[in-house]
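Narrative of accomplishments. A recurring question from our advisory board has been how the design workflow behaves on a single, concrete structure rather than in aggregate. To address it, we present the structure tokens for one chain from the evaluation set, followed by the sequence designed for it. No filtering or post-editing was applied between the two.
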């Protein structure tokens, strides 16, 4: 699996004249977008976690881009004016740890190029295309196995050209090191070596280098004004058409989950078949666990344990595993999911009681505190965000109260994690459950439990109440083997990895801001229509809104649902037996402009019903 990329972008771009007098070539604009930023986005969408960019001329542009994209690591080549692209690659090489994609910064290309390289079975592959007639071609000759013989701008040097070099390659770490060694040996006689020369040098030193040719690939390297003109007028329209054809039909899921996902998360499931017992997959699961932990606490103090299943399975894991034989549990019930926690406790015949609270009003914290003391409880279970209504419980306040009383906290964060900023230590949360879908924006099918290591270790000698869902057994087996005890959902975990990459890019704070923007659009329409919300605005999560249904007899939720569905929106009925509501969620990959389209429809539907 390729996790890192290097973009060489230090050059002066002198052939572009005034166009690049104040910027690097990578910041040429096409369709209002910088070409290097297009490349960065495509790399992230193809699962690249870290992008090292070798900078030189006007390096501050890349420094600013790195502030926008956390995946970018800019590395400055101070001698960029005296060295070629290989000199920049040498500066970047110490900053990568594994196999890489290597790209030039002045490329515009169809993203199928990345898919082809990442799925090529060879570790070292340069991408080639058919004839471009660009006037600045770099030719590649190969042997009968499609291994590189020569790469050169001089056709007479190459002999018979098999393909033209695109400027995107997949390279093993060993090959990168060999290229750097070759370059160092020629610093005196070839100070401005281009990386293509070092590629051939590495091949001659024993690194097998193959060519993947895409005859009709839409791409262009932009070295002069004529290249820029062709890229704008011909190449970019071809790329946009080709990439749009691979887009997945867009359904805006305004139900509380599973949530709408990006195409890149969906496509992450289209991956190489692999036995999950292979070390590579185990390392990927370890990465997933560590990255999930980083969202909520330090790896030293907290651990994430993976399971196959829904968020409810993670809840059952916690309730059945974390309350010891002599424990006493209090469950807060102020919605269907709190009720579900209580049901799980009853199935396992735990010593527990239920603290009943309103499904739409804030918790009575004084009453809760009194109950905790009088009941001599050892554990408390609660839902951070009640998906039933959109009610947000004050978990940090509850957690602090519990820890002051020596009570272990068990929290369902299924529809809160990755939307709400959570710090388990600050918020006094010992165990919490979530899922691979909803606000992390992956695909449904995996779940996980975040654990305070100190409290987790206390479960070591507790008798198992079940087999599949035992938290400590799953934790210790994975810690020892990098394997789950039972078959994991391979494709779903690949999608979760991509979702984590995208969450790190957006950040949880910015994601909540986006969700809030969508919520504000919805609430403004609800208030304009005169509809009523179940939960007071100051107690709402900004993630899910429960709206009271109109009493007009001509209103039909089924009709409302079906007409919305015809427009690409999925909505969900309420889940409170005694109150008629419908729910609108704005979690997942939903953008404000999509919520604006939905409320236009909503107004058109409701206004005739609410005239009176």
């Amino acid at each position: 699996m390729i996790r890192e990329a290097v973009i060489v972008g230090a050059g002066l771009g002198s052939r572009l004249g005034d166009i690049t007098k104040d910027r690097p070539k990578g910041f040429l604009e096409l369709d209002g977008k910088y070409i290097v930023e297009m490349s960065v986005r495509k790399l992230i969408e193809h699962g690249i976690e870290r992008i090292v960019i070798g900078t030189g001329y006007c390096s501050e542009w890349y420094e600013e881009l790195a502030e926008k994209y956390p995946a970018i690591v800019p590395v400055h080549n101070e001698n960029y004016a005296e060295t070629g692209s290989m000199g920049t690659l040498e500066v970047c090489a110490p900053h990568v740890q594994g196999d890489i994609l290597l790209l030039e910064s002045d490329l515009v290309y169809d993203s199928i190029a990345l898919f082809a390289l990442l799925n090529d079975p060879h570790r070292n592959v340069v991408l080639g295309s058919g004839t471009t007639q660009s006037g600045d071609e770099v030719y590649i000759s190969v042997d009968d196995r499609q291994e590189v013989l020569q790469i050169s701008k001089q056709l007479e040097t190459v002999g018979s050209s098999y393909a033209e070099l695109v400027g995107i390659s997949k390279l093993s770490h060993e090959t990168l090191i060999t290229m750097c060694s070759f370059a160092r040996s020629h610093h005196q006689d070839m100070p401005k070596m281009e990386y293509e020369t070092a590629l051939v040098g590495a091949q001659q030193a024993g690194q097998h280098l193959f060519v993947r040719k895409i005859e009709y690939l839409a791409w262009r390297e932009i070295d002069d004004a004529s290249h820029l003109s062709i890229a704008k007028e011909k190449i970019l329209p071809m790329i946009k058409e080709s990439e749009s054809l691979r887009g997945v039909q867009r359904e805006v899921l305004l139900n509380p989950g599973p949530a709408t996902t990006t195409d890149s998360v969906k496509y992450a499931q289209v991956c190489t078949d692999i036995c999950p017992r292979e070390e590579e997959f185990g390392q990927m699961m370890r990465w997933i666990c560590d990255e999930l932990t980083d969202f909520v606490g330090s790896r030293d103090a907290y651990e994430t344990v993976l399971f196959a299943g829904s968020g409810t399975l993670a809840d059952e894991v916690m309730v059945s595993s974390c309350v010891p034989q002599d424990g006493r549990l209090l469950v807060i019930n102020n919605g269907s999911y709190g009720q579900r926690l209580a049901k799980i406790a009853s199935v396992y015949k735990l010593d527990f009681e239920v603290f009943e609270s309103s499904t739409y009003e804030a918790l009575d914290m004084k009453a809760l505190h009194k109950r905790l003391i009088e009941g001599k409880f050892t554990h408390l279970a609660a839902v951070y965000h009640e998906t039933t209504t959109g009610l947000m419980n004050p978990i940090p306040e509850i957690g602090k109260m519990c820890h002051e009383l020596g009570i272990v906290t068990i929290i369902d964060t299924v529809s809160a994690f990755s939307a709400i900023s959570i710090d388990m230590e600050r918020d006094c949360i010992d165990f919490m459950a979530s899922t691979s879908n909803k606000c992390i924006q992956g695909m449904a099918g995996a779940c996980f439990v975040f654990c305070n290591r100190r409290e987790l270790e206390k479960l070591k000698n507790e008798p198992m109440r079940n087999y599949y869902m035992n938290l400590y057994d799953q934790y210790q087996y994975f810690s020892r083997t990098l394997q789950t005890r039972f078959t994991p959902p391979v494709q779903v975990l690949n999608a979760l990895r991509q979702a984590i990459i995208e969450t790190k890019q957006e950040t949880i704070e910015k994601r909540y801001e986006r969700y809030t923007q969508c919520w504000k659009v919805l609430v403004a329409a609800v208030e304009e229509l005169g509809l009523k919300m179940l939960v007071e605005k100051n107690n709402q999560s900004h993630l899910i809104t429960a709206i009271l249904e109109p009493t007009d007899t001509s209103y039909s939720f089924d009709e409302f649902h079906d007409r919305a569905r015809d427009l690409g929106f999925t909505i969900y009925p309420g889940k409170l037996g005694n109150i008629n509501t419908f729910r609108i969620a704005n979690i997942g990959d939903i953008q404000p402009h999509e919520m604006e389209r939905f409320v236009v429809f909503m107004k058109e539907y409701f206004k005739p019903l609410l005239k009176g």
